[in-house]
Amino acid sequence: MGFPNASGDLSSEMEVDAFRRLFPLQFHERHLAESIRPDGRPFGRARDTSIALGAVASANGSALVKIGSTTMLAAIKMEVMTPLLESPDEGCIAIDFHMPPICSPIVRPGRPAEAAPVVSKQLSDTIASSGMIDLKELSLVSGKAAWMAYLDIYCLNADGALFDTALLSAVAALSHLQIPAVSLNDDGKVVLMSEEDGEMVAKEPVNKEKRKLTLKSIPFSLTCLLHKNYILADPTAEEESVMETLVTIVLDSSSQLISLYKPGGSVLAYTSAIQDCVALTRQRVKELQSVLDEANSAMEVE
Amino acid sequence: MAGKAGTTPTTYSPSPTTKKTKAPLFKDDDVDWVRPDGRGFPQCRPAFFRSGAVNAASGSAYAEFGNTKVIVSVFGPRESKKAMMYSDVGRLNCNVSYTTFATPTRGQGSDHKEFTAMLHKALEGAIMMETFPKTTVDVFALVLESGGSDLPVVISCASLALADAGIMMYDLVAAVSVSCLGKNLVIDPILEEENCQDGSLMITCMPSRYEITQLTVTGDWSTPKINEGMQLCLDACAKLAKIMRSCLKAATDSQE
User: In CATH, what class is A42-177+212-301?
Assistant: First the structure.
């Protein structure tokens, strides 16, 4: 990149792929000047999104989510714990985001990706502060037993907008979660109620039926990329690596702001740019809500 | 909300952990017992393969055998680690890990050292290492869900991912295992069957060359049983390789 003019001269004779790799910024700016992105999307359009619920048979709730080619698998396993002293009537949710080495050439085994703990923390914060889940619903016996929901999200294919996909898969898995029916056994331990079990009368049921969590105000997010005066919604990994300023906005289903991240970057975000991002997120929330509703109603039909 | 290190309360799974008291799959003299999923003894689960599952990788494949679900990504050939000595043949680097929700009780999702080593040994004989000198090919596998016969599925899936990445191989590597349960040999065992097996045998081979890259036998076997088991595996490997090959063909056809 030592010769700023070199790219201009070469671009006419160079192959597109070579130009893309050697002068990625110029390659993208050429597209932006024509009001289009390399994958053919207009600036404000997010990629196609799909949700498949119940992808993991061994989990209590699970979802496979794709935004473009970014793919994530979220699954919830319910375990029993003794509730904390300060909150005897509340269960707990432990959220973990994993980037295994299969998902991206940057991640190597034994050397975890830097992005993973950051996204993990953002997810926990967002889900806690959105008030989506009433932790009291996870209580079993006050002061004695409560549910611990382990929500693990695996990134299977990393192609940008990691937080958006992770949040959507977390929310989808929570909406698919079925809390199993359990009872107390003689040792005071909580065990699964088995249907063919004849001794059920002797046991004390704690949670009689399988049930779902009630989710209030579901959070949805959209990541936008700021570059000069352009705002690109839902960037791919390539766009994220070339232009580095990201803004992530999380709104709930009634368009209330839950959180806003702007982790540095070379572009300063002006009020108008942030407002534009929020407007894009509002549209996106409606899309995501309908995709999630569709996935849930498809499950009910089955 | 997420438990901080040190303050995380200990938890346990409500599902019964006393598996040993569970009735065995079959009685000792009962020759006509039915497998839990209704298959015949010499019948494999339907195999599903799809190549190109991860676009960030040079090559990748997804495999699903019943409840066993696996993704393998191949990266490279790329620069070897700095600490590596000069080598005029390429290197193969493998890793197998499990998700925390892969097993019936929640695990730690850590690397599986034994399978990592086995995967490496099963593949290295099939790859033409001299075609990528000084560099490394990384083969990373993630078991999304464990439903039995995990290692053979990982190996077959990995060889498909290598082919998808365009790494030169002598042949595809197909892997199949059989379990010995009492007097019977059951092919492609599921988790329940593996838990009460008396012995197991796994063959990874290159079917078109009729060469074996790895053979593991554990537990109690008589010589005729080993012969029978090997023949079963080799036949199944040949069929499996056909399915894998048709998956690769379908992928190239759809590109054109």
Answer: alpha beta
